[in-house]
Amino acid sequence: MTILVGIKCQDGVVIAADRAVTFGSEPGRFTISHLACKISVLDGKMIIAGTGHIGAMQRFCETSTLVWRAIGSTVKSIPPLQLCRSLCREAIDDARTTFLDTPQLGALVAFPNQQGAQLCEFSMTGFQPELKDENTWFVSMGSGQALGDPFLAFMRAVFWHKGPPTLKQGLFGAAWVLRQSIKFAPGLISEPIDIAVLQEDRAEMLNEQAVQYHLDIADQATVYFRGFDPTEIVSTTSSERVEDTLLPTESHPPTISVQGIGPIPPMPEPSFND
Q1: Could you tell me the pTM of the whole model?
Q2: How far is it, in rounded angstroms, from Cα 92 to Cα 104?
């Protein structure tokens, strides 16, 4: 079972995943659990994360590597959707060599392009590609999607309401969504958390210390929200609490401030592998 999160940022891409792997004789009947990384970095340029059959993920990484290397130095000039179609076509063709209609897999793929860093979702149903853009810049996949999507919606409403985040903000978002989703899941997804980053032409896995750095920031945000008291919101035009006043009118919209918890401390610069 899996949760994947992908975020297309203004200046890069973040992909994060849990490490829970389940064994079983048939779907829905699990025998044991295991920990394994679900993210691969190909040639220091492309990031692939998968949910589904491990064998299908291995084959998709192989066919994607062959496509990437066959294109060679012109890869950045190819239209992003054209590359995604090639990855899809090769994966499906490979699946059919063993009598499958499509790979039993869902995947997130990040790659560099002259139009900027790209993030593509390959759906579990049909394995068709969908590029993320300035209108839809985030995605979660796997059994943890039912938890991941609401947390991503919260991030969009609170932190990303103006559009795609910066890479620093995306790292915070990915860490916070994974941390909260795993915390409240009824099992089958679990830490440790892996995070990979694509920035310009460089793709890399964050090391354990860098991942923990971003998880610590996410935990600080949780503590901050715990200090929020809606009864301490007061109108700046009077000393009355909001709960003691009439609802604001269109001609007199409220101007509010929050007392009692202070400003959010400045977020440190993002930490990559030193």
Answers
A1: 0.85
A2: 10
